[in-house]
């Protein structure tokens, strides 16, 4: 995906403002397995996935709990770092060779002060991230594991080919064995 397409999906702004925002971005390529964000560090850069897939996870004992998966068009950001300038609790790892657009918080802060259209884009971006979090949290609280798996198949069927099953299992809030059972019952 091109940056303009990603930005417009969040909130369409005038071309001059979009060009200013794009001029502060850098396209970077990173290999599968690269960590974009590290738990315990202040990570203030914002990334958008142009090509590839990533997961956010937290280590829990001898395993990792994947709680977020992002693919093309999705933002990668440690909200705790970005908003509070505090150390983030998550690590974000690329699951495929990927291309990302990187925006630095300091550049964005300057643009927010100088351009009302970019400030409004930033507000819409924050709103969309809150909504995405809510849409992820509510099904975890009020649906069964089988229902969450069906929702995943409906909304993101490609994840089954692009993500390891262990990651998908923790993302769905189940063990890998439980996910195997759910998949077997579905056949």
Automatic annotation (TrEMBL):
SUPFAM superfamilies found in the cross-reference section = cAMP-binding domain-like (SSF51206)
Protein name stated in the entry: Cyclic nucleotide-binding protein
């Amino acid at each position: 995906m091109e940056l303009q397409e990603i930005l417009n999906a969040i909130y369409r702004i005038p071309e001059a403002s979009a060009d200013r925002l794009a001029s502060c971005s850098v396209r970077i390529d990173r290999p599968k397995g690269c960590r974009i964000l590290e738990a315990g560090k202040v990570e203030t850069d914002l990334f958008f996935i142009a090509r590839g897939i990533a997961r956010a996870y937290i280590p829990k004992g001898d395993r990792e709990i994947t709680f977020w998966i992002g693919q093309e068009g999705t933002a990668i950001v440690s909200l705790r770092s970005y908003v509070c300038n505090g150390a983030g609790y998550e690590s974000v790892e690329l699951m495929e060779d990927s291309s990302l657009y990187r925006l630095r918080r300091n550049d964005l802060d300057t643009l927010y002060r100088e351009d009302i259209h970019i400030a409004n884009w930033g507000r819409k971006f924050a709103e969309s991230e809150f909504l995405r979090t809510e849409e992820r949290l509510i099904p975890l609280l009020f649906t069964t594991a089988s229902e969450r798996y069906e929702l995943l198949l409906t909304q993101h069927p490609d994840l089954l080919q692009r993500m390891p099953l262990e990651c998908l299992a923790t993302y769905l809030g189940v063990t890998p064995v439980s996910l195997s059972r759910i998949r077997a019952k579905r056949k």
